[in-house]
UniProtKB/TrEMBL annotation:
E.C. number: 2.4.-.-
Coiled-coil residue windows: none
Domain Glycosyltransferase RgtA/B/C/D-like as annotated: residue spans: 51-204
Top EC class for this record: transferase
TM region positions: 6-26, 38-61, 73-91, 98-118, 145-178, 190-209, 221-243, 255-275, 281-297, 304-323
Originating organism: Psychromarinibacter sediminicola
Protein name (database record): Glycosyltransferase family 39 protein
GO molecular function: glycosyltransferase activity
Alphabetized UniProt keyword annotations: Glycosyltransferase, Membrane, Transferase, Transmembrane, Transmembrane helix
A UniProt-annotated Pfam family: PMT_2
Recorded superkingdom: Bacteria
Length: 440
């Protein structure tokens, strides 16, 4: 293992990251509903039933500024860290040349280019799970107690970012069944699991008390977005991965494929359930080194693959900057961030004109947006049926177009908001003035 790859790889990763950070300030996009919910759930327990670490990271960065850009800034920084850690893994397994390619390959993956526009579960999980994988490989070579403890720590933190990291344990067990060299000693395995359990237990207990854990994901990584991230998220690099998997003669390649295959398959199959989340990142952390190791002696194909991904890497963050109206506004990673602040401002202005201090929104995404964009405006945001809705006063009830409000004889329709672009383009909202007693 050498370090000759580190300087050029770091230079490339830093250059891409600086460009992404600069574009965050230029595009002026709003925070997504997922980021707003994570912000609202921090700094204590996070969103009940959901992995809390994303909210904690967002809350930490929000201490430096309250604009949407601060909620999104962790994205490019965390993927830069993941790229360099993954390069270290490739250096250990395949040598310095592949290590540099892997670091550059990760930072330019199309899925990473989209994920780096914000702060999602896969983004927060990526460097932590990469560190856990690196430490686990070190543990298999050295059998040291501190390495086992550190592996458990980073794996636990990765699971607090995305539950998909839990599949690391299943892959490790499967790898141990296939290769005797991939089995840690019993004492090291117990120590690893003990530390992992210590990190996860408080969250699991709170989740159980509050009604269970949720794998559901909204935004571009939920549903079929997760399927596309696994299948197309690596661009043309998916082809050499498939070719390498056809004849995985190298035990190292087989080991990594065990960590890639089950996670990729489950992520793709879970798409109809809307629980894809960070599965794409968990899969490609193991799959990317295999793909680029296969391309090691194929210069032309390697250059084509990396060049295509580099072009996509540049185009993705530029789209929100140059988008005005039309086709670019309908791209999922552009549309999901557009119009949220505008919608919230319209609702809150109407509430202020009516001297209403409580808003009840049926749409969870709109509730999250109102909580974030309405901070400091003195308007309480509630879910239907939640405690805290004032019974003795009128409240502003927001329902999607076509939904019948409760107490129809006592309701007055105030406004209909139907944006022609942005996140709410497909979901017009109707504002009703309703007695609070109707909603309890």
């Amino acid at each position: 293992m050498t370090r000759g790859w580190l300087v050029p790889a770091t230079a490339a990763v830093v250059a891409v990251t600086l460009c992404r950070v600069a574009l965050l300030w230029l595009d002026g996009a709003d925070a997504t509903a997922a980021e707003a919910r994570a912000w609202a759930g921090a700094p204590w327990l996070g969103q009940l039933g959901a992995p809390p670490l994303t909210g904690w990271v967002i809350w930490l960065f929000a201490q430096f500024g309250d604009g949407p850009v601060w909620l999104r800034l962790p994205g490019p920084l965390l993927h830069a860290a993941a790229a360099l850690i993954l390069g270290g893994i490739a250096d250990r397994l395949f040598g310095a040349r592949v290590a540099a390619l892997v670091a550059v390959g990760w930072i330019t993956l199309p899925a990473v280019a989209i994920a780096a526009l914000g702060t999602g579960p896969g983004t927060v999980m990526a460097p932590l799970l990469a560190a856990a994988l690196a430490l686990y490989m070190k543990l298999l070579d050295e059998y040291r107690a501190w390495v086992a403890a550190a592996t458990g720590l980073f794996l636990g933190l990765a699971c607090l970012a995305s539950y998909w990291a839990i599949l690391f344990l299943a892959s490790a067990v499967l790898a141990g069944r296939v290769f005797s060299e991939a089995r840690p000693s019993r004492s090291q395995a117990v120590l690893l699991m003990a530390v992992w359990g210590a990190v996860m237990t408080p969250h699991l207990v709170v989740g159980a008390v509050e009604g269970g854990l949720s794998w559901a994901v909204s935004g571009p990584w939920g549903g079929w977005g997760a399927f596309l991230a696994v299948v197309l998220g690596a661009g043309p690099l998916a082809v050499p991965l498939v070719l390498a998997a056809e004849r995985p003669g190298n035990p190292v390649v087989q080991f990594l494929l065990i960590f890639f295959g089950p996670v990729a398959a489950l992520t793709a199959l879970s798409a109809p359930l809307g629980i894809g989340g960070g599965g794409w990142a968990a899969a490609w952390l193991a799959g990317l080194p295999v793909a680029l190791a296969w391309l090691r002696g194929k210069r032309r194909w390697r250059r084509i693959c990396l060049a295509v991904n580099a072009l996509v890497c540049l185009a993705v963050p530029l789209a929100p900057v140059v988008a005005e109206r039309g086709l670019l506004q309908t791209l999922p990673w552009v549309e999901t961030r557009a119009g949220r602040g505008e919608m919230s401002a319209t609702v809150l202005d109407i509430a202020a004109d009516l001297k209403i201090r409580a808003v009840v929104a049926a749409d969870p995404e709109l509730r999250a947006d109102l909580s974030y964009f309405g901070r400091g405006r003195g308007v309480a945001v509630h879910a239907p049926g939640a405690s805290g809705v004032p019974e003795a006063r009128d409240v502003l009830l927001i329902l999607r177009l076509g939904v019948v409000p409760p107490c129809p004889t006592e309701v007055m329709e105030v406004a209909e908001i139907a944006p022609d672009h942005g996140a709410y383009r497909r979901w017009p909202q109707v504002l009703h003035l309703v007695p609070g007693s109707c909603l309890r």
